[in-house]
């Protein structure tokens, strides 16, 4: 048992209360020091470093609003849509005596639906920052892997929650996505049946998705968020210069504190409070003035009860899934032949120009033959599912694909900036095409965009080494405002 810390009896009441708590709960105070007051972060953080904190804020908003929604939601195919309408129109401010008959459920529902889109906005920006500043590079590989796992869980959470309002787009969107699993060879029909819980999307599907959306996935998500933060604070934060402030050669003061770092609290907590204020202004403006956001956050078809006998003219997922949906639709029968040609081109280059042992060359050749045979004898829809899933899975391998000798985009060859810029534009175009109905031109553009998306990552070991990098400073570049 640790010894109690003594404090002067003349100390202020707040100090005495703090001392009393610290003597009885020292772990909490140790965590505060390790992760806030004595956690030194680089002093040159910029705008892009606000999105990690905003992600935690939106997660809290989603959990709190979700708790209130669950109080009134009915996970029953016959009652779900009506319960959402009841939440929107009739749930009163029961805890405020003077406003007991004023409905408030619409606010909570819109906070939750807008929060889902806000979550993906801040997470996409957070991942973009990691991409351009090399935050996935050594020694932060595990931080990146936990982050990608969070992204994957977030997608699962959003998809399962999308079904719960039981509107037309919820029902038919789930029908389309679940049926994609039926394209998996051998186990596809059984897998789709297991996910649905029935032969069609119905009450059993709704109950399963409700259980996973409310309990299972959030628990995993919270665990991954904690692991992400702990891993980050163990190795330290990256910065726009990609310079390590805590390494063995980093400058430190007499107490071993990094000279290029500042305590996270109070400096960056105040910085984040300002960012939170700006974010909440935009967030509340959307909730009060444009909660559907032109049909992108809440589709108009989702305000119509689910009808298994009436298919909407155009079925599309929510905007944050549409880049991957475009990749799914891009894989047609002829696109399969293009993918086969890409595989054989990669094998040819590996055999002729790669420094591989004879055994690995034989394995690569055999694998190419096997994959080609599979692709020619399997439905193109299955390979669309593979491409859609692979677009997310490939992010996990990014730390081992980038071979550039510097981390940050600031010191990479100038043409790398154009490469990253084209990647962002391409991702946006894929997202836009996923919203639109299928068309011949859109199909061609999405096919080119899909090839570029995967080429960006798969060819990164080669193109990331091309060009002359700029000298990286030994200290972080920082100018006080």
Characterize the structure shown.
By secondary structure, the chain is mainly alpha-helical. The protein is 62% helix and 1% strand. It is globular and about 80 Å long. The protein has a two-stranded antiparallel ribbon.
Summary tags:
two-stranded antiparallel ribbon; 62% helix; single chain; mainly alpha; 481 residues
Helix content: 55-70%
- Give the beta-strand count: 2
What string, H for helix and E for strand, traces the elements in order? HHEHHHHHHHEHHHHHHHHH
Mean pLDDT: 89
Strand order across the largest sheet: 1-2
The rough form would be described as: globular
Please report which band the strand proportion falls in: under 5%, 5-15%, 15-25%, 25-35%, 35-45% or over 45%.
under 5%
| Radius of gyration from CA coordinates | 26 Å
Span between termini: 47 Å
Largest sheet: 2 strands, antiparallel
Number of helical regions: 18
Regions with little confidence, pLDDT below 50 for 5+ residues: none
SS class: mainly alpha
């Amino acid at each position: 048992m640790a010894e109690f810390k003594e404090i002067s009896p003349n100390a202020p009441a707040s100090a005495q209360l703090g001392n009393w708590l610290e003597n009885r709960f020292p772990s909490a105070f140790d965590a505060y020091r390790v992760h806030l007051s004595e956690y030194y972060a680089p002093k040159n953080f910029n705008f892009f470093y606000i999105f990690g904190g905003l992600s935690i804020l939106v997660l809290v908003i989603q959990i709190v609003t979700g708790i209130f929604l669950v109080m009134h939601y009915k996970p029953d195919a016959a009652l779900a849509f009506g319960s959402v309408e009841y939440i929107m129109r009739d749930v009163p401010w029961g805890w405020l005596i003077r406003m007991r008959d004023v409905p408030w459920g619409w606010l909570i529902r819109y906070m939750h639906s807008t929060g889902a889109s806000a979550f993906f906005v801040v997470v996409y920006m957070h991942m973009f920052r990691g991409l351009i500043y090399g935050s996935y590079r050594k020694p932060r590989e595990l931080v990146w892997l936990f982050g990608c796992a969070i992204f994957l869980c977030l997608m699962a959470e959003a998809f399962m929650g999308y079904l719960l309002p039981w509107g037309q787009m919820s029902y038919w969107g789930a029908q389309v996505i679940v049926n994609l699993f039926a394209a998996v060879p051998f186990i596809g029909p059984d897998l789709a049946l297991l996910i649905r819980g029935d032969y069609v999307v119905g009450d059993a599907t709704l109950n399963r998705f409700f259980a996973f959306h409310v309990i299972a996935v959030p628990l995993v998500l919270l665990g991954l968020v904690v692991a992400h933060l702990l891993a980050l604070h163990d190795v330290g934060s990256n910065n726009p210069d990609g310079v390590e402030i805590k390494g063995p050669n980093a400058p430190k003061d007499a107490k071993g504190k990094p000279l290029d770092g500042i305590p996270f609290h109070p400096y960056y907590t105040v910085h984040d409070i300002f960012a939170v204020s700006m974010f909440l202004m935009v967030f509340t403006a959307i909730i009060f003035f444009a909660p559907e956001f032109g049909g992108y956050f809440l589709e108009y078809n989702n305000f119509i009860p689910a009808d298994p006998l009436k298919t909407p003219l155009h079925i599309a997922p929510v905007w944050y899934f549409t880049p991957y949906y475009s990749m799914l639709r891009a894989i047609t029968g002829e696109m399969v032949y293009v993918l086969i040609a890409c595989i054989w081109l990669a094998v040819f280059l590996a055999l002729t120009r790669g420094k591989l042992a004879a055994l690995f060359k034989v394995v690569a050749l055999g694998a190419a033959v096997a994959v080609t045979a599979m692709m020619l004898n399997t439905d193109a829809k299955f390979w669309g599912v593979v491409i859609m899933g692979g677009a997310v899975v490939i992010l996990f391998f990014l730390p081992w694909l980038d071979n550039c000798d510097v981390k940050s985009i600031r010191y990479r060859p100038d043409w790398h900036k154009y490469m990253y810029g084209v990647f962002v534009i391409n991702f946006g175009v894929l997202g836009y095409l996923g919203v639109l109905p299928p068309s011949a031109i859109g199909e061609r553009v999405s096919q080119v965009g899909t090839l570029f998306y995967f080429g960006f990552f798969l060819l990164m070991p080669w193109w990331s080494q091309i060009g002359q990098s700029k000298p990286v400073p030994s200290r972080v570049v920082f100018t006080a405002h």
